[in-house]
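Quick check before the chapter quiz. The format below is the same one you will see on the exam, so make sure you can read both the input and the output lines.
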Amino acid sequence: MRGRAWLGAALVLGAQLRALWLAAAVEVHTAKEVVAVNGTNQRLKCTFSSSSPVSDQLLVSWNFQPEDLSSHEPVFRYLKEPYKPPSGRFKERVTWDGNIERNDVSIIIWNLQPTDNGTFTCQVTNRPDVYGTIGEVRLRVVQKVSFSEIHFLAVAIGSASVLMIIVVTAVIICQQRRRKARDKRMEVADTEL
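Here is the expected output.
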């Protein structure tokens, strides 16, 4: 009787695991935080993985939660094709930049403004995967690039330029010295003959 109980338990467990496999979750991946300069455009990257092939019922929803925690706003939707929002702050400022075949559901926000500070959420549903994580991107819009970033870039470019000048100068000096030494040896050889 014990053998039958184990067999029954194994069959029930196998059926449950199969059901869990069929109802697997979609995993959504985003950058956790993005910093962009006021007035520029920013790509908000969102990719996903699913245990099922991408279906024609794939649904992508982008939403926005402002920093002041007022109500969520729809930003973008994709169901068989991209749908821009008919109203709201992102009406004429968002475009689709994804590629469904590559599991990329990214968007671009145009002409960023300080009022765009907040959290963008990316949700993907790919039937038969019924559950999924929600990706979050915290966007910070700054007035200009911080001094430390500009300073670092200037130092890197300046150092590379100075290094190139030193290397070129050293090569030219070495070539001139070799030429002079060769010419001197030839003069000495000519005088000896």
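If your answer matched, good. Confidence is low (pLDDT under 50) at residues 9-22.
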